[in-house]
Amino acid sequence: MKTLKCTRCGKEIKGGFYNAPSGASCCECWDKVPQKEKNKELEKALSKLASIGRNLK
Ligand SMILES: [Zn+2]
Question: What is the DSSP code string of the chain?
């Protein structure tokens, strides 16, 4: 089984994680991400979804 590593701390992810557009992040690291950066990640994720939606039309 492929192990998933946190892109922020490099540790193997066991249990919950956040699949941010810039890479998977463990809960511990995600908690330390500033809200501003979280919003940016969210925007990126949404724009990705939007482009997928456009391609389907
Ligand atoms: Zn981490």
Answer: -PPPB-TTT-PBP-S-EEEETTEEEEHHHHHHS-HHHHHHHHHHHHHHHHHHHHHH-
Question: Is residue 48 domain-resident?
Answer: yes
CA of 43 to the centre of ligand 1 (A): 21
Question: Domain residues for 34?
Answer: 17-56
How many domains are contained in the chain?
A: 1
Provide the pLDDT for residue 1: 65
For residue 39, is it within any domain? yes
What is the pLDDT at residue 39? 95
| Residue 25 alpha carbon to ligand 1 centre in Å | 5
Residue 2: inside a domain: no
